[in-house]
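Input for the complex:
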Amino acid sequence: MSATTGHKPVDHAAAAAAFVADTPHLAFHDKRLWELRQKRDGQMHGIPEWQELRDLASAIKEHTLSRLPEYLEQFEAQAQANGVRVHWARDADEHNATVLRILREHNAKTLAKSKSMLTEECEMAPFLERHGITITETDLGERIQQLDGQPPSHIVVPAVHKLRADVARVFARTIGGDPDNSDPNALAEHARMTTRPLMLDADAGMTGANFLVAETGAVVVCTNEGNADLSANLPRVHIVSAGVEKLIPRQADLGVFIRLLSRSALGSPITQYTSHFRGPRDGAEMHIILVDNGRSKRLGQEDFWTSLKCIRCGACMNTCPVYRRSGGLSYGAVYSGPIGAIINPAYDPARYAALPFASTLNGSCTNVCPVRINIHDQLYKWRRLIAEGGFLPRKKVFGLRVMGVVLASPTLYRLATASARMAVRVLPRALLYSRLNAWGRDREVPVAPKESFAAWAARHRPAKK
Amino acid sequence: MSAREDILAALRTARPPGEHPLPALPTFPGVEGDLLAAFQVSLAVMGGQWVSLPEGEALGAFIRARVGDGPLIRSATDELPDFPRVDAVNRPRDLENVDVAVVRARFGVAETGSVFLSDHELRVNTIAYLAQHLIVLLDPVAILPGIADAYRRLDFAEARYVSLMTGPSATADIEGVMIRGAQGVRSLTVVFAPIG
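Predicted:
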């Protein structure tokens, strides 16, 4: 998602239709993500102060965002005092160029990296590959996606849209292995045996950051597989890519965020590894690249700046009925699901005009968000901006305009509902379930009652004395 | 202007309106009572194992008996002078063939079953990941109730590298099937042993 425009608008509904048509994948995807949501609920119920922790997390993040320049300067000073080299990047291009410069300083040809949504956002991998760098994604889900030539479909579980047989086929095609052995244990073991040597030999390592602590200069990375700690601790160079919104003021604030993060994400009490990088090892180098790439612009948007509170747990995705039934790739963007639907339009409202409409506005995303982002309110506000900006497809503009006129007039409304009731009862199926009626697609239109509620109520209202 | 100045200026211009005070952090009740028992339950949830050093038994003999003579062992603690040490290698990657590593954690956290290991305890950070199996010595009296208690300690700010480790490396990236032993250690066993 470099800020290039001119891309074709994402057609979320069409992409989702392809996903929905594949019943086994859809069924698993829906079930697996709902399972994560339920595990999250289980963790929440074990923490009496859960709602208070969400209040605190939200307040700490809002405070930090309101003082971001000060905290960034404090963080930079601390990190430099710890022997870390701090770089700044206005956009994706500057970020990628900085990474390449550091790699070239060390004559590095291979890079082992752990999961980082920011590097996806910057489209770093294709850039570095064009310059002769070989990149190994070391998180299992991310590795599967890399080998398959696909972006991650979920920010926490990147290959959640794939079934085990898909993984076996991807491995057989790329890193060898039996395409017919889809035992997850065997597949994970194969990934371990083929990825570890690449980490051992890597010239440089890269991680993202979950939190940057201004007070201590620490970079906090939360992972489960041990790949991030190996990528950072094996090579002589460790590069950290971090968005400027990752700051938190105090070390003690981690006592709020770490308690919320993995519980919200995977429904586990904590990640297997919660690692804190403050300075390079003896004889090694540590670099941190602080990236803006549209964040300062979003900070200035009164209705949307709080989306920068996001700690990338994915809880909003797991709970969203639209996400669970359409798959992350259907969003055609780096960030998918409800959070993606409010982040992506800030970069390119024309391209991502469809995404804020990929929601029922049920508010579940807002209810599970550990930092209390009002996601569904922002979805609604984006819809308005997209309509006002003229980014809506023509069919939708016409429909909404008609609806606006009808809903504004009681007479027209009564006329319209009466004819709709009649239409559902008397129209032939061929017409009712035609391309003209989106509501008749994939579902049976309910049987229409003979009379409206208003008419029913009028008949049953006790006669006034 | 430099990227740094540009970004800071843009963020200053974009400063959100209104007051957003930094909240004080309250202390929540958290885990009470038997911290050791709570730690054991939490560790098991995260896939870790635990065992207590029997009273009067020597630590070295106890570990030898558990591991056997075959596997390559490396120790990062001075408590085991008879074991080969982790820092006898030149490069972090030279530990790739280690079967079992023994380290001493500074403290544990009952809420999650985590152990605190910094570059000071590990000596070579990669030992905790490259070894196939990790044995973590933990003094049963050095267990804090909660994660928030851990983050009030200065230990984090004094180390260049700290990991709160909770069980072995794990992945559920293929159909949600939990697999212990992803890229790091395949097992993590906490041995409750008072500091000798």
